[in-house]
Amino acid sequence: MKKSLKNYTIRYITIMILIVIALWATLFYAYIMEEVYDNVDDGLKNQKIEIIRAAYENESILQTADFGINQFKITKSLLKEKQKQKNIFKNDFIYMPYDEEMEPYRILSTNFYGKDNQLYDLEIRTSTVEEDELKSDLATALIILYIFIIISIYFINRIVFYRAFKPFYQILDKLEKYQFGKTKEAVHIASNVREFDILNIEIDKMIDRNEKIFKQQKLFIENASHELQTPLAISTNKLELLLEDEQLNENQLIKISETKEALDRMIKLNKALLMLSRIENNQFEHTVNLNFNSLIQQLCHEFSEILDFKGVTVEVHEHDIFQAELNSDLANILLSNLIRNAIYYNKQNGGLIRIDISKEKLSIANSGKQTALHGETIFDRFRKENTAISSNGLGLSIVKTIVETNKNLKITYSYLNNLHTFSLYKL
């Protein structure tokens, strides 16, 4: 699943912050423990000096053989002078009645000479921090800090990202809405970011180049179609005259007839391309509020002979009046193409066309092929669902182009209840 740039960035920031905090916590814990032991050891050393001084002044202190409330004991040393030890620190666990459990202690072991020149062993102890509790408290604090940082970054990122990348998303929106031949002028997007300005300028240049090429192609198709009309009409007329020549044999007449049929298809294709070109060039600007119910009834009457010939039944269900603002010629072409398509791709003898008209929707459904058609490409130019020679593959493309000229209309294809349905919606 693709993620937005904003969420993609936050995900990596979250992971990186987690790693940084974990490393920082490890170093911080080691540093804190070093400082704690250093302070405790300094306290023990200071306590050692005070005890030795007190022992010189009061020799009864030398009789403190067990740890008492002063947390030290003094015993005669068995070491010789040359084996005299220096300060030795160690950690140990000692039972603490208050907590009723073993607690960590820091112990200093050392020696000193008493006033009687006797070497004594001195042990001083003091409680120190519980590393397990410290780790737990530190971890809890860091988790809270991590969550707070991530939430802060999320909201800060939303605000900063929205402001900083606003031109970028405007450029994306412009690209998403861009369609060949429908962009009247480039939309300037202001930005204080140099890269976004460059991107916007280059995209405007690309759109401008595409529009020029598209207009040139449309002009070429329109001119070529116009130029082809006259020679095609002349050729067709001459072939019709040849068909009336009684001196030609049957084989020659068949070949001429086939040639004329091919020319007729070419004429239809030429007219369809011209129609597309005229629609795309907005040559049908005059629009009126049309009653599509009347148009449907009129077209059904016009197609009645073809429907009878093919054995197709038409059912028109008028639930309400469907009205829309559209050029009358285009509306006629739109509906006639849909009905012609429903007849052409219907079953021979026993076929059905069902037309449902409501206030917001007009649908034309037909029986025919027992599988759904490809909805994403069905309106593409020269798209054919079969290899029929008589179809030029532009009928539905013209329908789609007409609908796209009206921002208040939309057309869709669906296959429901074994019927291929084209639905025209008002937006």
Helix content: 40-55%
Poorly predicted ranges (pLDDT <50, ≥5 residues)?
none
The run of helices and strands is HEEEEHHHHEHHEEHEEHEE
- Sequence of strands across the biggest β-sheet: 6-8-9-11-10
Q: Could you tell me how far the N terminus lies from the C terminus, measured between alpha carbons in angstroms?
A: 31 Å
Give a verbal description of the structure.
With 427 residues, the protein is α+β, with helices and mostly antiparallel strands. Helix content is 53%, strand content 19%.
Give me a quick take on this structure.
This protein is of the alpha+beta class. It has helices spanning 5-57, 131-164, 166-177, 194-243, 250-280, 292-302, 304-310, 328-344, 395-404, and strands at 72-76, 88-96, 101-113, 119-127, 288-291, 312-318, 323-326, 351-357, 361-366, 409-416, 419-426. It has nine helices and eleven strands.
Task: Fill in the keyword field for this structure.
11 strands; 4-stranded antiparallel beta sheet; alpha+beta; 427 residues; rod-shaped
What secondary-structure arrangement, pairings included, does this model have?
Layout: H1 5-57, E1 72-76, E2 88-96, E3 101-113, E4 119-127, H2 131-164, H3 166-177, H4 194-243, H5 250-280, E5 288-291, H6 292-302, H7 304-310, E6 312-318, E7 323-326, H8 328-344, E8 351-357, E9 361-366, H9 395-404, E10 409-416, E11 419-426
Parallel strand pairs: 6-8
Antiparallel strand pairs: 1-4, 2-3, 3-4, 5-7, 8-9, 9-11, 10-11
Helix pairs in contact: 1-2, 3-4, 4-5, 5-9, 6-8, 8-9
